[in-house]
User: Which sequence fits this backbone?
């Protein structure tokens, strides 16, 4: 166990140092990402104001809170893109990773988890600017803050394992982009990223309840902006644990079969 | 004249290159349809709560979306691939090969690449515009049609100039590829007419990143909102931006010291 913990700490540290070095590049990336929620926010605030103040239970200030917290959750949700597997396999980078005594998934977890610390620090000024510009209505209780602190990491793990599993498709299929894009579209619609799910028709909300996406995305946001009771927060954390477990199960089963298909010259 | 011949032969080579990979066409169609579906879902959601958004009716916003998709396709067909290649060339010093050719360097670096499958988005944008026009149920007069085409052309030129200015920054700052992410994020704002945004954002989207000129103004021409003054102003701004891009390019070149030759 000790070597494993050491390995994680080491990877996290390296990742933090590395990403902090590229802070300007990271900022460009993060500012580009802020454009998306700002667009949604402006559109829905306009709709809310035109409808006499609120729509789907959200006022303009409510939307501001939702989409500002959105930006942090979105950043926490960035994990290894499934497209990475194409080059890992084609260029034989995987061969080197397979020589390590640990499963390659650990290295990826450590790397992305470490990056998150840099992201959270860099996010604070962005949040401050957005708060000044859009005046969100938000006053979280200690329970909500604690729940949120756990839930953003829960969301990270849910999305991390599911996308890692998705990326493994590259072992069987060479032209993966159509499948990945379909997956991302479904995720966009049913995670609460496009709009809070309460604005969607009833049937869409029922579909979303069966999928993992909203637990990784909308659930942490709603926790912080005070839309959930303590029981609902605990239930959501449980769902995150469940979907993380499902993700780990898929990864461990598929990984073994995938490896048997892998043949590449090393580098 | 040489510029057109140059562009044409580069286009032919690029097209022949990509025509080898025909399945990519279907992949592209599929992905464009997904993007279109997402856009339509967004519109449908908005209009399930309100009859109009900031003074724009559903078919009018559909026209905006059509222009947005068309312009996005145009950017990805020619502007973006050329600028990405230029960025790479500056980093690696391979720009020497382009500079030593007996043609205007700015013209040459602007026409070297073409991704023809991205024209799927241009076609899809035109279809969406067409459907919007049918729903609008008004005759598009010759003047309005002409104004739309002119506005689109100027929008394209402005986006090109903007990209060239940013890319030229690579002569001073080497790592510019994240600017690409930034632009793609900001361009998404064009999905909606810029008039709905708060002042500071609208100004940014008009003068700093010319999304307003590229998408909203052509859409205004389509929906009979465009005044001749705005079009004239857009023309002047296009000219100014192109001259600025030319000047920045020339200055940047003087800072370039090749790596290979």
Assistant:
């Amino acid at each position: 166990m000790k070597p494993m913990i050491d390995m994680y700490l080491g990877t996290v540290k390296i990742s933090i140092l590395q990403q902090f070095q590229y802070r300007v590049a990271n900022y460009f990336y993060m500012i580009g990402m802020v454009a998306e929620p700002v667009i949604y926010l402006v559109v829905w605030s306009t709709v809310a104001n035109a409808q006499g103040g609120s729509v789907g239970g959200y006022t303009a200030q409510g939307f501001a809170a939702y989409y500002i917290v959105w930006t942090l959750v979105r950043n926490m949700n960035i994990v290894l893109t499934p497209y990475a597997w194409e080059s890992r396999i084609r260029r034989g980078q995987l061969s080197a990773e397979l020589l390590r005594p640990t499963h390659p998934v650990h290295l990826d977890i450590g790397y992305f988890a470490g990056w998150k610390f840099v992201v959270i620090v860099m996010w604070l000024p962005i949040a401050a600017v957005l708060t000044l510009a859009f005046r969100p209505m938000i006053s979280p209780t200690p329970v909500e803050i604690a729940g949120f602190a756990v839930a953003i990491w829960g969301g990270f793990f849910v999305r991390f394992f599911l996308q890692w599993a998705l990326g493994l498709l590259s072992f069987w299929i060479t032209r993966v982009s159509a499948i990945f894009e379909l997956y991302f579209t479904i995720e966009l619609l049913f995670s609460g990223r496009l709009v809070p799910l309460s604005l969607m028709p009833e049937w869409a909300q029922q579909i979303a309840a069966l999928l993992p996406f909203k637990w990784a995305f909308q659930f942490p946001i709603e926790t912080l902006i005070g839309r959930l009771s303590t029981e609902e927060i605990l239930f959501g954390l449980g769902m995150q644990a469940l979907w993380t477990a499902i993700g780990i199960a898929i990864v461990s089963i598929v990984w073994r079969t995938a490896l048997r298909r892998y043949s590449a010259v090393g580098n | 004249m040489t510029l057109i011949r140059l562009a044409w032969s580069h286009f032919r080579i690029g097209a022949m290159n990509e025509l080898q990979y025909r399945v990519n066409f279907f992949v592209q169609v599929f992905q464009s349809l997904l993007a279109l579906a997402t856009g339509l879902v967004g519109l449908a959601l908005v209009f399930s709560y309100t009859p109009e958004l900031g003074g724009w009716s559903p078919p009018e916003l559909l026209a905006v979306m059509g222009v947005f998709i068309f312009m996005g396709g145009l950017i990805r067909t020619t502007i973006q691939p050329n600028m990405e290649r230029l960025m790479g060339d500056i980093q690696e010093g391979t720009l020497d090969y382009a500079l030593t050719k007996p043609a205007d360097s700015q013209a040459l670096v602007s026409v070297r690449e073409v991704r023809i499958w991205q024209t799927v988005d241009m076609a899809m944008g035109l279809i969406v515009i067409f459907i919007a026009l049918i729903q609008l149920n008004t005759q598009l007069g010759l003047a309005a049609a002409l104004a739309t085409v002119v506005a689109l052309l100027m929008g394209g030129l402005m986006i090109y100039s903007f990209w060239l200015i940013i890319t030229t920054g690579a002569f001073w700052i080497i790592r510019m590829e994240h600017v690409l992410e930034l632009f793609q994020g900001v361009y998404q704002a064009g999905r909606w007419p810029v008039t709905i945004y708060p002042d500071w954002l609208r100004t940014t989207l008009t003068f700093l990143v010319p999304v307003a000129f590229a998408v909203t103004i052509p859409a205004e021409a389509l929906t009979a909102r465009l005044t001749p003054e705005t079009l004239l102003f857009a023309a002047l701004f296009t000219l100014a931006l192109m001259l600025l891009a030319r000047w920045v390019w020339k200055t940047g070149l003087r800072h370039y010291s090749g790596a290979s030759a």
Q: What stands out?
A: The first helix of chain A runs from residue 2 to 21. Chain A touches chain B through 34 residues (CB under 8 Å). The beta strands of chain A are 54-55, 58-59. Chain A has a mean pLDDT of 90.
